[in-house]
Amino acid sequence: MPGKSADKKPSFSDTFSVVGGNFDDAGRVSSRIKGILKKMCLPFEVIRKAAICTFEAEMNIVCYAQRGDITLSVDEDRIVIEVVDQGEGIPDIDLAMQAGYSTSTAKIREMGFGAGMGLMNIDRYADDFDITSEVGKGTKLVMIVNITEGS
Predict the structure, then answer these.
(1) What CATH number corresponds to the domain at position 97?
(2) For the whole model, what pTM was predicted?
(3) Which of 7, 49, 75, 117 could cysteine-pair with 125, CB 3.0–4.6 Å?
(4) Is residue 57 over pLDDT 90?
């Protein structure tokens, strides 16, 4: 039905690739997305929440997957960030959502990552968050940050 919010077309949509294990470029996509949202003149707090979610998801790709894609879609009511990676997958999502739980290597921890707070931070800052994962295939995150109240 025309006029329904589910029928809204994004005013912006783009997909960005992330290479797993590439710590030299880690954070590049989330910085780029933050810049796009700033150019759209969105409220500071909305940009901050989306940037935190995107950075945490990007770092999970870099630390734990071979590769992944981050898709940013923005309409007048919300920001949708969809992350799909090709990695090991998460065998126990409930456990992975617990503060401090991490499967990171010593090398990743030495670089200051892998503290086990990434998924918790995403859950905290996203207005809506869904995670699915298949062991041996990868993980999919859908994070929504509302631009307007009640969206």
Answers:
(1) 3.30.565.10
(2) 0.88
(3) 49
(4) yes
